[in-house]
UniProtKB/TrEMBL annotation:
Protein name (database record): histidine kinase
The entry's keywords: ATP-binding, Kinase, Membrane, Nucleotide-binding, Phosphoprotein, Transferase, Transmembrane, Transmembrane helix, Two-component regulatory system
Enzyme class: transferase
Gene3D superfamilies reported for this sequence: 1.20.5.1930, Histidine kinase-like ATPase, C-terminal domain
Enzyme Commission code: 2.7.13.3
Gene source species: Kribbella lupini
Amino acid sequence: MPEPYPTESLDLPRLRYPDRAITPYDGRRLAIVNSVDQSLNRRRSARDWVVDSVAFLLASLVGLILYDQNSADRIPDWMFLADFVSGIALCLLLWFRRRWPIQLAVLSALVTIYSETGGIAALIFAMNVAVYFQLRVTLLIGALNVVSVVLYSLVRETNDPPVLVYATALPLYIAAVGWGSYIRSRRQLLQTLRERAERAESVARLEAEQGQLRAREEIAREMHDVLGHRLSLLSVHAGALAYRPDASTEEIAGAAEIIRSSAHQALQDLREVIGVLRAPVGELPQPTFGDLPVLVEGAQRAGVPVELELDAPGSLPEHVGRTAYRIVQEGLTNAMKHAPDEPVHIEVTGAPGNGLTVVVSNPAPRIRPGDQGQGLKGLRERAALVEGRLEHGRTPEGDFRLSAWLPWPA
């Protein structure tokens, strides 16, 4: 399917049927029309001054030579005078060929019916139409010039036979129109290439921005997973200190040390995340599947009764192992938040070719149906990214169960 042509710079009132939807053909046609308008209405550049000066001098010099050579033609004196005056006038009008291209081309075709002096100017006017307008308009102007050549052979009683006049004039007009059409096609090609390059730059810029947004979303998800878990541990220990005013000095000191170390680690994680956000290129340090026992030990030191059943012999793919780690981490965080002091059972089993199953369950959570944050949604997205699946909800016994299956290629 071809790419649609851009319409943001198009002059919409130019459509013949304004109620009709804009098609790619309309977009291309309107873009060409606007390009022609801009070329015709822009200020004359230094290059235009040089081209117009050369065209004027060439048309005037050749016109005067032809006028002198055809002074022996058997025509009235007033026609000779009209030939000279109108021919020089056409040469002067070359300075305005960009402002009134079609009008001057029609006028030159009429004048060259009797004027030999303006012949080169008429060729330039015809080529000018071919440069700025579509083939249909160019062919109409070309046909008008052919009629002008035929009438010239009848009006001017020259010494040359009409066939020689046709053989001389018609190839010149064909060459001029062909050269103008080539220039127009080349300009359209350059314009198309320029628009494609600009479109490619825009697409590349949008893809880079989308990549940055995806990277920031990933960092935000990591912040939720890492800091949420650390802060949940802090909440558990702070709650224990608040509800145990009779705790011994050693217990208070141990809980305070855990709170201090957890807070310090949370600050370290936060610094790493902020460092990645500030850096132009970087990656957030990612946990691995081998860090899973360390995660469970940290929760156990915090006083959370966690039981881990790990049976996954073999080497997991890095992205699958990281996803399994995040699922367990989010399950522990939710358990400490919604069901503190309740035992948590974690089961991680699997083998290459059969997939990896991760189950986190804890009894009687106080979470209400529908009271779910972004963590579980993020876990579902993580599992989908590795072509896995995730389910969560209450069991018939009233426990909350988080279950995931992740692919593990053989």
